[in-house]
Amino acid sequence: MQSLNLYEPMIATIKSVKELTPTEKMFEVELPDGKRLGHGPGQFVEMTVFGVGEAPISICSSPTDGNNFHLTIRKVGDVTGVVHTMKPGDKLGIRGPFGYGFPVDQLKGHDIIIVAGGIGLAPLRSVINYIFHNRSDFGQFTIIHGAKTPSDMLFKDELEGWRKNPNVVYLETVDRPTPEWKGNGGVITTLFKKVGKINPDNTYALVCGPPVMYKYVILECGVLGIPDSHILASLERRMKCGLGKCGHCQINGLYCCQHGPVFTYTQIKHLEEAL
């Protein structure tokens, strides 16, 4: 379901709020009459806080998660600051869904490597959950996850489940380990040496994280032999109006809101502004 008028938000209700870290919360959102959003993994919505403003937010739930959807929101400005004060029952405006997400039908039958850095795990959670819910449709499944510190990790209860799940290879690291941390220490690319033997031509790598991460992760994917056309990068940080009208998301003629936010590396490798 997309807004009947792309310029007019649907009135949605916050159903639950979960604090993930001191700066990130996850909101469960319900549309009028229990309607489904109709999104695909990797898409985003425009969220309105009435009287304050609007912001693009990636959807962090899979369409297979149920009628409601989830938004993970970092407190970084006026709109997100007010959202962080909101409670179940409060109203939001929702436009969308927008953009081209991860081509899950194309990915079926292939091995998948997810590479998530920091809050980049939020949009990737949508496709992770989709794969778990349709596990037999996909081959070998690996999640490579990095965060600054253990306390910065999102979805901690879900991470615990991934660590124990025999249907996924879960690798994690933190840039700055604490004395209590028992896992890997170092940047996310240090985990690539722990990836087992892969069939590069049958493997897709899905990447989202801080801007500095992309170049080095893509280099590591190249070392594994994964083709450029099989490296899918979400440039969700560039999203703006959702309609391709404001021009703020433009990358040398590509509009992130319209042509992305998910691009193959083939599409963007020669665009200096992209990565």
Labels describing this entry:
Elongation Factor Tu (Ef-tu), domain 3; 6-stranded antiparallel β-sheet; alpha/beta; 7 helices; 7-stranded mixed β-sheet; 275 residues; Rossmann fold; 2 domains
Account of the 3D structure:
With 275 residues, the protein is an alpha/beta fold. The protein has two domains: 10-98, Translation factors (Elongation Factor Tu (Ef-tu), domain 3), CATH 2.40.30; 104-268, Rossmann fold (3-Layer(aba) Sandwich). It is built from seven helices and 15 strands. Strand 3 and strand 4 (53-58) form a beta hairpin. The model has no long low-confidence stretch (mean pLDDT 94).
What's the CATH class of the largest domain, please? Alpha Beta
Looking at the overall shape, the CATH architecture of the largest domain is: 3-Layer(aba) Sandwich
The chain-level mean pLDDT equals 94
What is the name of the CATH topology of the largest domain? Rossmann fold
In short:
Helices cover 19% and strands 30% of the residues. The protein is α/β, with parallel strands linked by helices and 275 residues long. The chain has 2 domains: 89 residues, Beta Barrel (Elongation Factor Tu (Ef-tu), domain 3), CATH 2.40.30; 165 residues, Rossmann fold.
